[in-house]
Request: fold
Amino acid sequence: MIRKGIQYLRKNTLLQVMVLYGLFYQMAFFWLERRAVRVHLLTSELDEKIPFCEYFIVPYFLWFIYIAAASVFFVCFCKDYEESRRYVLSFCAGMTVFLLVSFLYPNGQDLRPQLERGGTVFVEAVRFLYRIDTPTNILPSMHVYVTVMNSIALCRQENIRRRKGFVAGLWMFSVLIILSTLFLKQHCVVDVISAFGMYAVCYILVYRRERGYVYGRDRRRLESA
Reply:
């Protein structure tokens, strides 16, 4: 079983990239979280008007399953190699920008409420989240960026796009994940908005511009023939 897994890893270049980059990202993020630097607060009056709601811990934690499932699909099962390559490129590009921003502009927020002990299972889950994840290095929100990236990449698949009900449910789930970052006081409005902006730029560079280049190259090839 292990031997087959190693053989498959050797044959799958995109899987190799995801595994190696994942290791690099975890080490870099671990270092960024623990270095002693001055943190720039990103909170605003609008953030303080958003109420805390512990029930959003459910979609927030489901995000981890969502990102894992989408990554496995595109790296291991998607038949369109170009779409898989674009997914991996978008993933790594977004994470890299996030690390650079966190390094050059250490940031955070101070919105987390005091949670009383002995609360519901949802409150205890939020307490666990607060314990394992600091309120620093939140710009842009990777929860939001990867959610939008996953949803758009999946909806580009023809067999998924035809299933209108599934697509509607997928986007409803995505909205809940995005809202969870705000209602759990994990992120601020500014880093949620910046995640949308960063993905818009990434989509243009990875999908639109690259596709236009390929089409232009093919067109010139046909004209020369």
